């Protein structure tokens, strides 16, 4: 999501004559696009701000800006640090040229207004990906859920969906430029809804519209919410070969007590029933998740419930975190962050170890299968090998000198690690 926002920012600045540089020593403006989801993300940014200030010592006049969620969360406090000249929240990017213009010594600029309408629908992002094959498209912004641990609704504001025609136009444009995959992004894609005089478009309908751009254009999406993912979406996925069979379905916890405290609006049983439905309709669908260990009041039994859910579902992979209290959230106001750091770390490590075994089991189950892969480029390890993802999102590597990024290739799986399928060409 942040990468896509950075692409939007580059587009806005490019229209006003700014050029992008990879070298900090050359920059007149240095900006960090920030995340506030966990405290360590913010701590890293403070480190970066210090590093920007070091650079400024050699080149006075350089403007330092902080944009995105951390700008939104800390607002003036960032200016009070006297280390930055510009603070802009996620809905203020259109004003960046104006704000940059107004910055002068002793006159820092700030805009952290959130909007109910801004979707940057008319802005064509400047693509930052290196391979020219896969691109992100934001289909909505903000979030209307209030998961008690989460800062996103406060930093990104209310949910708003983007006009589907602009989404399809962006997908067509990317396809004509050689892209072969789009990833539709939103905090809760299943609640995408666009209404106008012509009628309404829900997420399933949007998926169809984008899938119909071309059978050669793959469609992926993230993030699905267990409460909201509908049968219609699951069946729509089954109707189109080019809608990739992968769902990222964050569970957060396997304990109903925790889920309720987290305000996740579903139970463990509901989650498992959604997984069962996905596997019934889409037997080869990849499934990944997010989880938080050590949320407020989490007992050993709650933790064991998470482990048993992981064992039962056997995800292909997971993003695993321990709980990090975020100021201003419901949990910070209502519940004590009372699981000590040793226990959080131990529980997280237990989940990571279990997931490692599950990943290996899931990848091993693909040995002998044939997958159609979209080539992304040479593998990290060898120029004689290519890599690309199967529909289920698993990374495949295979020796091949004939094909190039953007080609579709059939490969057969020979062996695996817990994160990669080792393959050969199937022709
Ligand atoms: N909208 C997505 C997730 C957005 S944040 C969803 O609803 O699933 C990405 C992930 O960060 C979350 O899924 C959660 O696992 C993690 N996360 C969010 N807030 C957190 C916190 N306070 N501490 C630890 N992890 C957190
Ligand atoms: Fe945060 Fe919940 Fe919204 Fe995801 S759905 S962004 S976890 S509030």
Write the layout of secondary structure elements.
Blueprint: H1 2-15, E1 29-34, H2 39-58, E2 63-68, H3 69-74, H4 76-80, E3 86-88, H5 96-102, E4 109-111, E5 134-138, E6 140-141, H6 152-156, E7 160-161, H7 164-176, E8 181-185, E9 193-196, E10 199-202, H8 203-211, E11 218-222, H9 231-239, E12 246-248, H10 256-261, H11 268-281, E13 286-293, H12 300-313, E14 317-322, H13 330-334, H14 341-364, E15 370-378, E16 385-390, E17 395-399, E18 408-416, E19 420-425
Parallel strand pairs: 1-2, 2-3, 3-4, 5-8, 8-11, 12-13, 13-14, 17-19
Antiparallel strand pairs: 6-7, 9-10, 15-16, 15-18, 16-17, 18-19
Helix pairs in contact: 8-9, 12-14
The chain binds S-adenosyl-L-homocysteine and iron/sulfur cluster.
Q: Mean pLDDT, nearest integer?
A: 96
Major sheet: arrangement of strands: 15-16-17-19-18
User: Which ions and ligands are bound to the chains?
Assistant: S-adenosyl-L-homocysteine, iron/sulfur cluster
Oligomer classification = single chain
Largest β sheet strand count, sense and barrel closure: 5 strands, mixed, barrel
Overall structural class, as computed from helix and strand content, comes to alpha/beta
Poorly predicted parts:
none
Q: Into which percentage range does the β-strand content fall?
A: 15-25%
Overall geometry: globular
> Given the structure, what is the number of helices?
14
End-to-end span in angstroms? 37 Å
The portion of residues assigned to helices is 25-40%
What is the CA-based Rg, rounded? 22 Å
Number of distinct beta strands: 19
